[in-house]
Specification:
The chain is an alpha+beta fold. The protein is 23% helix and 36% strand. It has three helices and twelve strands; from the N terminus they run ββββββββααβββαβ.
Length: 185
């Protein structure tokens, strides 16, 4: 990032992860400017999958979520879609952590659209909905589509099904989207 030569360090470690198999954990660090990029890449590939989790209570917020760098995450109740890109990082979190990531995006979208009263109103509605979801007052749905099958929601209550060829073809990459076209009632 800073164009200093000889300052970049790459650390990689081969690991074996239960339920996923072989993976490569890597960190890229610049000694000059502090730039850091970490990634966790599953080295295998599984069948394309859609994982759907219906969060109904406070316990659901603690369910483990593993999003590979190829997974698209959706929370329809707040118009949220996070699509992978070439620099996407995998992460291991829980449902509450995914909600926190979504809130950050909603707040950014609110700032970017502050001059559009209609979008501000819709984003305000999404943020109010988010507040109720994170307090476990409102059920919601977490969906992960992964064309390489390397994402997971660790719960016996998930719905898991293969993605069709058509669904895979429509998966986009490179964007985080907040749907500002729907009218909320």
């Amino acid at each position: 990032m800073c164009h200093e030569t000889g300052q970049l360090t790459l650390l990689s470690t081969h690991v074996s992860v239960p339920h996923f198999g072989d993976a490569l954990e890597s960190t890229l660090c610049c000694g000059a400017c502090g730039f850091r990029h970490a990634d966790f890449m599953i080295l295998g590939q599984k069948e394309p999958v859609r994982l759907t989790f219906h969060a109904k209570d406070e316990r659901a917020l603690h369910v483990r979520v593993i999003r590979s760098n190829s997974g698209t995450v959706r929370i329809p109740e707040i118009g949220f879609t996070a699509e992978p890109s070439q620099i996407s990082e995998s992460y291991v979190s829980n449902v509450e952590g995914v909600l926190e990531r979504a809130k950050d995006i909603l707040l950014t979208a609110l700032d970017w659209n502050k001059d559009d009263p209609q979008k501000v109103g819709l984003l305000g509605h999404y943020l109010q909905t988010w507040e109720r979801m994170v307090r476990a007052e409102l059920p919601f749905t977490l969906i992960i589509d992964d064309p390489f099958g390397n994402s997971a929601i660790v719960s016996e209550e998930i719905e898991k099904r293969p993605l069709s060829d058509e669904e895979i073809a429509h998966l986009r990459t490179g964007m985080t989207v907040v749907d500002l076209t729907e009218t909320q009632e």
